[in-house]
Design goal:
Layout: E1 3-9, H1 21-24, H2 29-41, E2 45-51, H3 55-65, E3 71-75, H4 84-93, E4 97-101, E5 123-126, H5 131-144
Parallel strand pairs: 1-2, 1-3, 3-4, 4-5
Helix pairs in contact: 3-4
The protein binds ligand CA2.
The site of ligand CA2 has 17 residues, from loops.
């Protein structure tokens, strides 16, 4: 069965590969998306992607995704920890969203230990660097099946 998955990335993830490689790795977001798309194609999955540093744009993209994609892999960046608007958008659209992080947010500063989005997501993947996106895709496909 062919599927479409939205890979949504939040603030500062456009900087991947430029700084803090010890936390976030050496790959750019484009590198990860290219490899993820190739991997997804083996499972007849089309990846569409969107990155924004703006909360409202991410809310709008979730609204657009309603009824047009099968699920969402979402790295909300720092919005993870405080965006009630994104939580309401996930809950309100009813989309199957996998919250995804490069780093293990639970092994970092205390303020990163809380996700206000996780309770309205189907699951959370964190701590596997670039591989988190691949794990999230495989988990999402199994969830959808
Ligand atoms: O581990 C993750 O994927 C995060 O979502 C990344 C966010 C952080 O606020 C979350 O707590 C965990 C930060 C993304 C910033 O990415 C940068 C990449 C390179 C250079 C600077 C920032």
């Amino acid at each position: 069965m062919t599927r479409t998955v939205l890979v949504l990335n939040g603030p500062n993830l456009n900087l991947l590969g430029t700084r803090e490689p010890e936390i976030y790795g050496h790959d750019t977001l484009a590198d990860i998306l290219t490899d993820l798309s190739a991997h997804a194609a083996h499972s007849e999955v089309t990846i569409v992607d969107f990155q924004s540093n703006t909360e409202g744009e991410l809310v709008g993209r979730l609204h657009e995704a309603q009824g047009t994609v099968d699920g969402v892999i979402f790295n909300p960046g720092a919005f993870t920890h405080y965006s009630i608007a994104l939580r309401d958008a996930i809950a309100g659209t009813g989309l199957a969203v996998v919250e995804t992080h490069l780093s293990n947010i639970h092994a970092r500063e205390e303020f990163r230990h809380t996700s206000v989005l996780a309770p309205v997501c189907v699951g959370v993947v964190a701590g596997f660097g670039r591989h988190s996106y691949f794990v999230a895709l495989d988990a999402l496909l199994r969830y959808l099946a």
